[in-house]
Structure formats: C-alpha cells, structure tokens
Amino acid sequence: MSKSGKSVFTFGVYLAAIGILLLFIPNVLITPFGIEPAREVWIRLSGILLMALSVYYILAATHEIVVIMKATAFIRLTIIFFFSAFAILDLVSPNIIIFSVIDFLGGIWTLSMLSSEGHFGHKGIGSS
User: Fold this and answer.
1) pTM (2 decimals)?
2) Any idea of the CA torsion for 113, 63, 82, 39, to the nearest 10 degrees?
3) 12, 57 contact by CB (below 8 A)
4) How many CA atoms lie within 13 A of 10 on its CB side?
5) Are the beta carbons of 54 and 15 closer than 8 angstroms?
6) Distance (Å, rounded) from C-alpha 27 to C-alpha 88?
7) pLDDT tens per residue, the chain (128 residues)?
C-alpha cells in the first residue's frame, strides 16, 4: 500500500472507530468536549453514516483509487470551516473544532503523500 493509501486507510479506521462510539456510546465521546449529552437518535445515525463512509475510505486505500483518495483529502480540509462556523453561530461548543483539526491534518497528510507520489499533474483532481 502506498503512503497516501496508508493515510486514507488510517483515516478510514479512525472514522469507523468514531462511528462505533457514536452509534453505541455517543455521550462517552461527546461530553468530554463540552457537547451536551445526546438524547435523540440523530447522533447514532451519524455514527452509522461514519461507519459506512469508512468503508469507502478503506476500499479506496486498499485498491489505490487515487481519485477517491484525492477527494477525501480535499473534503477533510473543508470540515474545519463548517465546524468553526457552527461554533461561531453558537450552534455547538467550540470544542467540536478539535475533531475538525484531526480531519484537517489528515487531509494535509494525504495531500502531501499524494503529491510526493506524483499524483498531481496538469489534468486536475482526477489525474494520477
């Protein structure tokens, strides 16, 4: 597996772990960050979605699907802006930004590995 594949695989495992926590014991994960305890089903549905998304990350990594790995990196770079906006709008505790920093740094890691492997040519995001 390439270095970029390893970075995406690692993030896929991270997503699966967060998803499992959100599905089964969401408050253990969120309350230490100052987020109100979850009482509705939505947090658990988010866990299911993260687990499903993790499958795509893991498959992209193990099958070296570069265009998907690029897309995941760019998407992870944007999460910090959304979470920051939620915090600025006082919709959630600013502590949620900690999770987005992990996404952002993971995106940088993947982009760096993809670049070092020569996956950015003149054809744009889809070039490999």
Assistant:
1) 0.87
2) -130
3) yes
4) 15
5) yes
6) 23
7) 999 999 999 999 999 999 999 999 999 988 888 888 989 999 999 999 999 999 999 999 999 999 999 999 999 999 999 999 999 999 988 988 988 999 999 999 999 999 999 998 655 555 55
